[in-house]
## 1
Amino acid sequence: MYFDTHAHYDSSKFNTDREEVLSSMAENGVTLIVDPGDNTERSRRAVALAHRYPFIYAAVGWHPEEAESWTDESLCEIRALAADERVVAIGEIGLDYYWDKTFIDQQKMMFRTQIELALELDLPVIVHDREAHGDCLEIVRDYPMLRGVFHCFSGSVEMARELIKRGWYLGFDGPITYKNAVKALEVIRSVPMERILLETDSPYLSPVPNRGKRNDSRNLPYIAAVVAREKGMDVETVAAATMENGKRLFRIG
Ligand code: NI
């Protein structure tokens, strides 16, 4: 049984068949999902889904790519949503220097503000770090009590080891199934199984052999198979370990 710790079923990409996709999860072995929001509206939708489906939990937060739209009210809105019993984390939050560097200061401010909210509410965080490894690490070092996951981890072995030492988890997604995946595989071999999470980032990042198509959590076994191969374990062991890891981090069950 699988736990997809990062899937955006609040996305409009699921508007035509969300019900059908989600109702097929159990028969495909996916028994838990965390849906992180990207802004207030999408966080609200994630919370609504978590109320509708007992196997879905929500995370609420503002994604760095939404920096331009963040206002003074955004933090209050996220704080209010985070009080919901189905919310297990603040996310997805972080830094993204890939698309646009215009709002770096705003991104950093949002990241810190939401980290402080997570600490205040005693919740873990879901971190998005795209081409911003140095700054992400520098910021999380300022909060030694903070716990969470670096989603779709793309940093070095050295960075991975530091995060593990600090109590963090690392999430791995479809890109580890791609031919050019080298660094991430090295990281998987270097970190303890107890800190690895499986994620899809649906509807994005479909693993091989479904690369290019819309992603959903039923593709998790392809990601688990790569982790199993790199760890020299069987897929069932990886599924069971990552299920326990996810439940521990998000305090589910
Ligand atoms: Ni995501």
Note: The chain has nine helices and eight strands.
## 2
Amino acid sequence: MKQQILSASILNCDFSKMGEEVHTAEAAGVDWFHLDIMDGHFVPNISIGPDIVVIIRKLTKLPLDTHLMISNPDDFIERFAEAGADKISVHVENNANIHKTLLNIQKLNKKAGIVVNPGTPVEMIYPLLHMVEFVLMLTVNPGFGGQKFLSEVLLKIATLSNKIQELGLDVGIEVDGGIDERTIPITREAGANIFVAGSSIYRNTLGIEAAVKRLKSV
Ligand code: DX5
Ligand code: ZN
């Protein structure tokens, strides 16, 4: 079985006490932090930019899994790399030069990921699989935390998992959107091994520490 990774999405954390929110999740055992970067063009919301990534970099040594939901990602990859991102993932949609974008990430010695929206056929990324550490299969439409998991993506995850095995590649499958104790087992069953959790950590009535431990145990 592939290594199981829990990546905490800080999009829905309490930004007025971000240091504490990061430290508590790290102490409880998360493996990565997932940073959602939104520009108000590619998605209908604006979140954080490279200056905030610099601050988060100072708060933790865990890998920063940086999910770019921005138009023209090539213009900003270097800024995010310098800010301290370890993994940079970019969408396949609306990027005619995605192959070059992935090369640019590799040139900066960062791990590349490729992101597939729920409405995008997964076959589109087959020519790029050899270039990435993981494929991020979005299980909600991008833009906001707290949305309902889209179960129709499960079939695409299973199709991708089979393709990766058939090609004999070492590529992870990350799932993002509505991931909680109910959806971790079903996405794992389909082939996912990297689980992004936002609301189920930071908006959980159990509190951050108990929420992380629960998610790691399912
Ligand atoms: C959606 C983001 C997700 C989001 C997940 O555009 O890519 O990372 O933060 O949040 P939850 O876990 O609340 O669905
Ligand atoms: Zn994300």
Note: The first helix runs from residue 18 to 28.
